[in-house]
Amino acid sequence: MDEQRTIKVSKYLSKHLRHQPERIGLALDPNGWVEIDELLRAAAAHGFRITRDELDHVVAANDKRRFMIDGARIRANQGHTVQVDLDLPVAEPPTYLYHGTVGRSLDVIRAEGLRPMARHHVHLSPDRETATRVGARRGKPVVLSVDAGAMHRAGHVFLVSANGVWLTDAVPPEFLRFPG
């Protein structure tokens, strides 16, 4: 499977497993799962054929491990805008986590902190390199350090997804460290 097809299938899966399952007639269960056969049928019925081999390749090859297969089911690991309960474990975070953004967002972040926007949680990376890649999707990346240890001690709850992304409801400005 070539890289262009891998990206196209991954984006299609993200759209329909995280944001708009109803667009192709899917109904995610309360934990975000859908039967693989149902997904493949729905995609084909809406003009986007995916083979099971392609699906398995995208799940295995995705550098961000966005998707998880459990038996005959698949789901996105995080990033949903539709209501699901991923039943993620509460975990004690490392001392620092990181968030990739772009310069044009810094004034609002300084004033309001990090908010989930359309998602259910703020997404934080375990390392600067990952945060840099995340920020680069929208322009020249700026990486913010999050004092996750202090947040945890102050009572903020952290969850960790199956692919190592850390999630929290919000990051108040006092827990952020800006570069420069």
Mean pLDDT: 94
- How many DSSP H or I helices? 6
Described by the principal axes of the CA atoms, the overall outline is: globular
| Integer count of domains | 2
Briefly note the structural class of the backbone. Answer: alpha+beta
Strand order of the largest sheet: 1-3-2
How helix-rich are the residues, as a percent range? 25-40%
How many strands appear in the DSSP assignment?
Answer: 9
Tell me the β content: 15-25%
Plain-language structure description:
With 180 residues, this protein is of the alpha+beta class. Helix content is 33%, strand content 18%. The protein has two domains: 3-76, Arc Repressor Mutant, subunit A; 97-177, ADP-ribosylation fold. It is built from six helices and nine strands; from the N terminus they run αβααβββαβαβαβββ. The strands form three sheets. A three-stranded antiparallel beta sheet has the order 1-3-2. A three-stranded antiparallel beta sheet has the order 4-6-9. α1 crosses α3. The mean pLDDT is 94. Its EC number is 2.7.1.-. Keywords: Transferase. It comes from Streptomyces pratisoli.
Topology:
Elements lengths: L2 H17 L14 E2 H10 L6 H10 L5 E4 L2 E4 L20 E6 L3 H7 L9 E3 L3 H9 L4 E6 L1 H6 L5 E2 L5 E3 L7 E2 L3
Antiparallel strand pairs: 1-3, 2-3, 4-6, 5-8, 6-9, 7-8
Organism: Streptomyces pratisoli
EC number: 2.7.1.-
Protein name: RNA 2'-phosphotransferase
